Amino acid sequence: MKVAVKAPGRGLRMPAEWETHEATWLAWPHERSDWPGKFTPIPWVYGEVARHLSQRERVRLLVPSREAERAARRVFEKSGVNMAAVDFYLCPTNRSWTRDFAPIFVKRAADLLITNWKFNGWAKYANWKRDNQVPDFIARRLLLAQCKLDVVLEGGAIDVNGAGAMLATEECLLSDVQARNPGLSRRHLERVLSEYLGVKKVLWLGRGIAGDDTHGHVDDLARFTDPRTVVTVVEEDPSDENYRPLLDNLSRLRKMTDQDGQKLRVVKLPMPRPVWFSGQRLPASYANFYIANGLVLVPVFNDPADRVALNTLAKLFPDREVVGIYCRDLVLGLGTLHCMTQQQPR
Fold it and tell me: What share of the chain has pLDDT > 90, as a percent?
């Protein structure tokens, strides 16, 4: 498979999520079919997330219409959002999962650039063309140079330590099911990731969690919390369908080293009890947290394991406030906090 680009990628580096942000990008939720029968509380979840973020960094919100902007302003104002830190951008989208279709920001020395990867609705949904145009829109509005690639990559499929190591799953990026890039080999993909994100080593995990319609996004499984520490979810119930895949991922991580050959520190994070709605198992995971300036937002589900997850992450981020955000409604859309955010590094 030939990879075409409109700008060379030499010297690019994707910063780790904990590096200082200029802003967080969100997209106002409007696709009601993502939350069938349960859409009403979703804008208020966005209001609560924006309330916390706006105290720490700018919030840049994509809205599909002026009517949607007015609705967002009402929700944000009633939720106590710092409106002086919010920018609204009129930009139609299909959905609101900016992690996967918004640009992946990179740096070359002190310069900020955009990598514009193709988005195709997770190789599953038909309505994705508006989402695919978002990186172009943001590049124009921010007057940033961009590297435009003919490779499909979603932000939720990867996690980096900013020093050259990347977490990803074989199920998502290498499988023939929901294949993002048919014909693109592991070796070729690793070469593209190296050139455009500064990846020196991909740490390949196996499968994702039950209920995940992305077919294996790593941001529901394992995340870097510092350059050599990875937190990974585990399932303690042997009868649960997540038990064996998550045990395999844990085993792989314990044998892995970082980009410099140094052994990883691997910390276990619990899974909540299975979350179901209308007979559908949902991809509830504490690994879908979002790291912002001085802050970590963590999905919680009114589960006994909420406390364990929050305490574990508080120990891993001692210099940040760790806040739980109720996500039992949001996860019906098959994503939570990391899925709905995309960081713009300073």
Answer: 97
